[in-house]
Design goal:
It is built from 11 helices and 5 strands, in the order H-H-H-H-H-E-E-H-H-E-H-H-E-E-H-H. By secondary structure, the protein is mainly alpha-helical. The protein folds into 2 domains: about 70 residues, Winged helix-like DNA-binding domain superfamily/Winged helix DNA-binding domain (Arc Repressor Mutant, subunit A, Orthogonal Bundle); about 100 residues, Arc Repressor Mutant, subunit A (Orthogonal Bundle). A 3-stranded antiparallel β-sheet has the order 3-5-4. Strands 1-2 form a two-stranded antiparallel sheet. Strand 1 and strand 2 form a beta hairpin. The relative contact order is 0.07. Keywords: Cell cycle, Cell division, Chromosome partition, Cytoplasm. This is SMC-Scp complex subunit ScpB.
Amino acid sequence: MSELEVVPDREPNSNESELERDDGIEAPADGAADEQFAFDVNDFPGGARSAIEAVLMVVDEPITEISLASALELPVDDVRGHLTELEAEYAAQQRGFTLRSVAGGWRIYSRSDYAPVVEKFLLDGQQAKLTQASLETLAVIAYRQPISRSRVSAVRGVNVDGVVRTLLNRGLIEELGADGDGGAFLYGTTDYFLQRLGLGSIDELPALAPYLPEVDVLDEIAEQGRG
């Protein structure tokens, strides 16, 4: 026999699982997954109530009493009782959060009394005023939408690429497709823009449009600028 002996692969046994044949790892026996998650909520340090809190802390939408009862293997009535007690406990302790039943489910929310604190945290740095250049660019887009950047630049007499990016990032304008002739992106205002101005539609904008050049004039100005 040579020093290096090649041993042929053995034929797989028909009784072996695919997982065993592929990498030698035995597939879990039936019911192993159930055993892995088997528990008694009463064995946890805080019992059923703490287990309910743990679940509530990770849901991103209201969870029903039935879903909680199923996950924790508890009667629905017991779950409902724990939820009611937790709601009362949070209120009595004047916690910064509360437990509320909304849309048929339960979820933890920040207490409305602390809305000013939460709003300041969430909006800090987001209320910076727009520059004059941004306001002028936004006005042109609002009154002449859909409009391309080159036409906006023609009105303002400067390159507006950076300002347009800022307005896009702030959610005040959006792309509305491409110009059928030149293929340039067209921009218009968003619903958020209307919300910030307290308007129901673009039609409610003040009568400023007559003071802005018409589209064909904008094209002429843009062509002159490129020349």
